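Below is a filled-in request sheet from our internal design queue. Each sheet records the structural input a requester submitted and the sequence that came back. We keep these sheets so that new team members can see what a complete request looks like end to end.

REQUESTER: design group, bay 2
PRIORITY: normal
MODE: inverse folding
CHAIN LENGTH: 166
BACKBONE (tokenized):
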């Protein structure tokens, strides 16, 4: 069982482990770049991809279901944020904090980046995918790991909720 991330004509199907790696490396970058309400909403969307909380094989989203913005400038700014975060993640930003080496994460990031680059957000985006609203944005940062999280709804960030390896 895996998860699908879609964008227009493209999609990225990842195993549960691949999904975990993609989301974790993106969250490290998003946590350090977020400054705008929309950025924190995107961070909240990523927190909803934590399979240790949401369930294995039960996550994924489509770029079409994201509320990119109501103006061309807003949509461009939102898309640029996702691309900048993906580029930062590609630089292996904070990967040493993961506690493991995600061997295929660079490939997943490159494929995700290509999908976002090819995607044209529209004003008529339908919100069936559950893109978090402004009131649901991830504004809490885990004090231990400095990663945006769904606090106070969950006990911590993705590193906090990760099962301990014995």
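RETURNED SEQUENCE:
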């Amino acid at each position: 069982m895996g998860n699908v991330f879609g964008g227009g004509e493209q999609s990225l199907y990842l195993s549960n482990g691949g999904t975990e790696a993609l989301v974790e490396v993106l969250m490290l970058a998003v946590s350090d770049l977020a400054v705008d309400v929309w950025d924190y909403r995107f961070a909240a969307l990523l927190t909803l991809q934590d399979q240790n909380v949401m369930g294995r094989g039960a996550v994924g989203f489509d770029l079409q279901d994201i509320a990119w913005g109501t103006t061309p400038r807003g949509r461009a700014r939102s898309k640029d944020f996702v691309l900048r975060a993906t580029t930062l993640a590609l630089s292996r930003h904070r990967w040493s904090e993961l506690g493991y080496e995600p061997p295929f994460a660079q490939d997943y990031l490159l494929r995700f980046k290509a999908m976002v680059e090819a995607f044209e957000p529209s004003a008529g985006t339908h919100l069936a995918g559950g893109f978090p609203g402004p009131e649901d944005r991830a504004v809490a940062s885990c004090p231990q790991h400095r990663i945006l999280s769904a606090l106070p709804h969950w006990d911590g960030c993705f590193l906090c909720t990760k099962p301990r390896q014995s």
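SHEET NOTES:
- The mean pLDDT is 82.
- The two ends are 25 Å apart (CA to CA).
FILED BY: M.R.
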